[in-house]
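To: structure subgroup
Subject: Chain for Friday's discussion

All,

I'm putting the inputs and outputs inline so they're searchable in the archive.
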Amino acid sequence: MTDDNFSEAQASVLIGTTEKMVEIWTRLSPEKQATLLARFGTEENALAALVTTHLVAGQNEA
């Protein structure tokens, strides 16, 4: 069985990253938002892709 609980530090990083991605989303041009929506289907999926990309990029820098 896997442990699905986040530590306080992990939760903080995840929340902070998500807040940044939402901020970035609101700054995207309508055309870029439309492109992401066309690719991922929903704003939630597009944001999830942005967050995942950001997290993976951060791991590669370590």
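Points worth raising on Friday:
The first helix runs from residue 8 to 27.
The CA atoms of residues 7 and 48 lie 20 Å apart.

D.
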